[in-house]
Amino acid sequence: MPVTEASTTTVHERLLDATQKLLADKGIRATTMQQVAESAGVSRAWLYRHYPDKPSMIGATIVRLTESFWRDARAELDAIGDLAGQLTAGVRIGRGAYDDPGTLLLRLRTEEPTEFAECAGVGVVKLIPDLAAFWLPFVEQAVDRGEIHPAHDLREVSEWVARVLISLGTSPGEALDIDDAGQIRRHLDLFVMPALSTHPRDRTVGAHRPPLA
């Protein structure tokens, strides 16, 4: 059945679905406009009516992946009543299945950063600011629950949380099994949450105390 104007929305979704699958299978460099058209079952001419070039096509797919991943993650985290529990789940979510959209984004950012930046733009490629912005509402809620001292700069806290999660999610070590939720929770309770619950001035003063004789 030939593609018509009435089916444009459906074709648009098929093109994004095809691009996502090819990105997961081949990566950015090896994915071509011709492959996307063939996979979606449309002509190259029809593909170019939607996307004039490869960066715009992949960029649209990246935007959809980002929106879908964070929307799903937010729903899960909203159901958890404390920040340490949310962060524990965040590590697991970030390390999710290899074909998970969020993991695909991280993989593309890591393995093909130049191509990713060309397709997604500078604003999307910055992983830490994106993740910090996502966690800011959870940080604000933690302040309301008394888990974070209100004297903290919450945007700074959100960025620190993003950096902690990236480290825990991507860097295995000897003292901590990052795939063990119990160990992750213990680590957060021991090191992260005490720092957040303390007035920043107290920690600053402590850091400058003279060494014991």
Structure, explained:
The protein is mainly α. It has 12 helices and no strands. Helix 1 crosses helix 2, helix 4 packs across helix 7 and helix 9 crosses helix 10. The N and C termini lie far apart (85 Å).
Question: What key attributes describe this structure?
Answer:
mainly alpha; 72% helix; 12 helices; disordered C terminus; disordered N terminus; single chain; 213 residues
What is the compact description of this entry?
The protein contains twelve helices and no strands.
Overall number of strands: 0
Low-confidence regions? 1-6, 205-213
| Main β sheet profile | none
How helix-rich are the residues, as a percent range? over 70%
The helix count comes to 12
What's the mean pLDDT score?
84
Give the overall silhouette: elongated
Mind sketching the topology for me?
Blueprint: H1 8-26, H2 33-40, H3 44-50, H4 54-78, H5 83-94, H6 101-111, H7 113-120, H8 122-125, H9 127-144, H10 154-170, H11 181-197, H12 200-207
Helix pairs in contact: 1-2, 1-4, 4-7, 5-10, 5-11, 6-7, 9-10
